[in-house]
Amino acid sequence: MAQKYIVGDVVMYDNKIMVVKEPRDGSHFDLSCPKEGLVYSFVGVDEIKPMLLTSAILLKNGWSKGQIYFRHSRIPRIKLCTDGGISWSVSINDDIMGSYINYVHQLQHILFAFGIGEEMEV
């Protein structure tokens, strides 16, 4: 399986919130658990689950809810919108991206592409 996580991605492992600390070989990762202060080494990608992106997570990370979109004051050109389900449409400079995102790490990758590498609180 191709590597889909990068350093700093928020994921779930063993029913705990984890952060990808280091990729090993593309199919194994070292994960840190901020709550426990522990590092889990050489975890298989098939054991890692993505964390759903929710309104609560966005609000906790400085995004504000407008009439339709969620926006962040530091990155006003990126807007997120959902119909209440698990999928989010992403608009960049008022152009809607072709596919939806569902998970925290997908938003992290978009922010990373714009040089915004701040940690996400969940």
Instruction: Work out the helix count.
Output: 2
Principal-axis shape = elongated
Provide the β-strand percentage band: 35-45%
Spell out the helices and strands N to C: EEEEEHEEEEEH
Residue share in helix: 10-25%
Distance between the termini: 27 Å
What's a concise summary of this model?
The protein is mainly β and about 120 residues long. The protein is built from two helices and ten strands; from the N terminus they run E-E-E-E-E-H-E-E-E-E-E-H.
Strands, helices and their partners?
Layout: E1 10-13, E2 16-23, E3 28-33, E4 38-44, E5 49-50, H1 55-60, E6 63-65, E7 70-72, E8 78-82, E9 88-92, E10 95-96, H2 104-113
Antiparallel strand pairs: 1-2, 1-5, 2-3, 3-4, 6-7, 7-8, 8-9, 9-10
Notable traits:
five-stranded antiparallel sheet, mainly beta, 13% helix, 122 residues, elongated
Fold and architecture overview:
This protein folds into 2 domains: 41 residues, no CATH class; 59 residues, no CATH class. The chain is 13% helix and 37% strand. It contains 2 helices and 10 strands; from the N terminus they run E-E-E-E-E-H-E-E-E-E-E-H. The longest helix is centred in the last third of the chain and has 10 residues. The radius of gyration is 15 Å and the shape is elongated. The mean pLDDT is 92.
